[in-house]
Amino acid sequence: MVKSLQTIFLLLILSFGTLSYSLPLSTSKKWIIDSASGHRVKLTCVNWAAHLEPMVAEGLDRKPLRDIVAKVAEHHFNCVRLTWATFMFTRYAQRTVTESLDSLGLREAKDGIAKSNPVILNMTLIQAYETVVDELGAQGLMVVLDNHVSNPNWCCPYNDGNGFFGDADFHPREWLHGLITVGKRFKTKNQVVAMSIRNELRGSRQNEHDWYRYIGRGARMVHKANPDVLVIVSGLTWGTDLSFLRQKSLGLDLNNKLVYETHWYSFSGDQQIWEVQPLNRVCAKSTQSLINNSGFLTSGRNPVPLFLSEFGFDQRGQNRADNRFSSCFMAYAAEKDLDWGLWALQGSYYLREGHTRAEETFGILDINWDHLRNPKFLKRLRFMQRMIQDPNSNLSTSYILYHPESGNCVGANGKNKIYTSNSRRWSRWSHDGDGAPIRLMGSALCLKVAGDGLPPVLSSDCLSQQSAWKSVSNSKLHLAAKDQHGEYLCLDKISAKSSKILTRKCICIDDDSDCLENPQSQWFKFISTNVK
Ligand SMILES: *[C@@H]1O[C@H](CO)[C@@H](O)[C@H](O)[C@H]1NC(C)=O
Ligand SMILES: *[C@@H]1O[C@H](CO)[C@@H](O)[C@H](O)[C@H]1NC(C)=O
Ligand SMILES: *[C@@H]1O[C@H](CO)[C@@H](O)[C@H](O)[C@H]1NC(C)=O
């Protein structure tokens, strides 16, 4: 009885969750909003690939569609960026799933689908894709349809014929035809909230002139085919460079439906910098480069939303560059409260780059789609899944003190002890900039250095040097105050196992090229919030 009541209660919460916004979506300055109420909707998506050679959403050979979709919702994503290949709609519109798998000799995948999702085998590829979209909608998830490639395949080598308008497989007219077909076909499905019109433009042909010409045309045509969807546009150089918009805007009026997107990985731009240079410098440079290339779009006179539609990390946790990049990434994305899409859901591919049953180490699910590859990572991501800034809130702004390496935030308990926590039990702080105290809101208390290796204390002494906090490194992610001897000590979350924070000797804050220690335990970020 108790159990079933709990279940009903849970269901109520879940269904309330799915109904807490209505569709379609629009934009208002840098936010995506629900058109009807004007409330902000934050897209927290996971990418799900359906654009590789078989043109079938991955994993349907492993688990029933319904179970896969349930996992997405269970882990607090509210949306899926579902990829598609142009040719599926223009050249292979009549092809069935069985025919597609047979033509590639994918017997094992076919047997798996026959077992887990028999109904899709006889469907056309498009019907199967639509079935996935329907199930996502049925479970309350929003969908972004992403035109990932023209010729179905793994994306995105520099010169693979799919990189830019005019490449061997990338015919502008066929691309437009595909966009219009998809726009019209999914018009009646209100879970389809957005279409991104092309993924990761790149290659030797890329140029701004053609970008304005074709992207403008594509965006207008999608808007005409389906005036309700958000139209998502990406830049040059693997979709990361929109810097040219500073000089010349796209000049489109899509009735508040235009959103830009970018991607950010440890391997974006300079390779390997995350391993061989001081981390504070690398993080500062990499963040500034993102701001220069696309982040600037969310500020200034005509701000627009920026959807960080791909970022991701090796989920096995063994890639040093990824582990370092991830904290830097989260500090920025959380501070700006960006909409985002994690790469990726899939733990495996039917066929990738010639390998059957290829593993996706960036996938949150394991190769058999049974378990989370890294449950801790999803816990860590939890903070970023929350809405942190609400444009309609009338609450005053305060700060959350966020520790990206753990995904935890700093709180003070009833006994005024400082801890970090992954749940919502964080405290609100105020801080008026470098040299000012960090005050616990609603109290007369401030954070104060007690000494090297000791936890900071909450004290009514807000004026001494031990209470004057300042960001002291290039990355601006170190928070330090002086001890009684005048030495700076930095906040430090010493271990993943303990909720404690201490103040300790600051790591590599002087931008010394020889200082390659990992300072991430000392990275904290003030995140401004006006949400309860
Ligand atoms: C698919 O079609 C084939 C041939 O028409 C038929 O034998 C088979 O039973 C169908 N399978 C399903 C799952 O509908
Ligand atoms: C960002 O742009 C500014 C102004 O143009 C420039 O000075 C700076 O070097 C750029 N930084 C990076 C990392 O690209
Ligand atoms: C803030 O908004 C809520 C509901 O939107 C309203 O009930 C409340 O009176 C508002 N408070 C202030 C201080 O405006």
TrEMBL record:
InterPro entries noted in UniProt: GH (IPR017853), Glyco_hydro_5 (IPR001547), Ricin_B-like_lectins (IPR035992)
Keyword terms: Glycosidase, Hydrolase, Signal
SUPFAM superfamilies: (Trans)glycosidases (SSF51445), Ricin B-like lectins (SSF50370)
Glycoside hydrolase family domain ranges (all copies): 64-346
Keyword Cell membrane listed: no
Keyword Lyase applies: no
One Pfam assignment: Cellulase
Signal peptide: 1-20
Family from the record: Belongs to the glycosyl hydrolase 5 (cellulase A) family.
PANTHER family: CELLULASE FAMILY PROTEIN (AFU_ORTHOLOGUE AFUA_5G14560) (PTHR31263)
Descriptive protein name: Glycoside hydrolase family 5 domain-containing protein
Biological classification of the source: Eukaryota, Viridiplantae, Streptophyta, Embryophyta, Tracheophyta
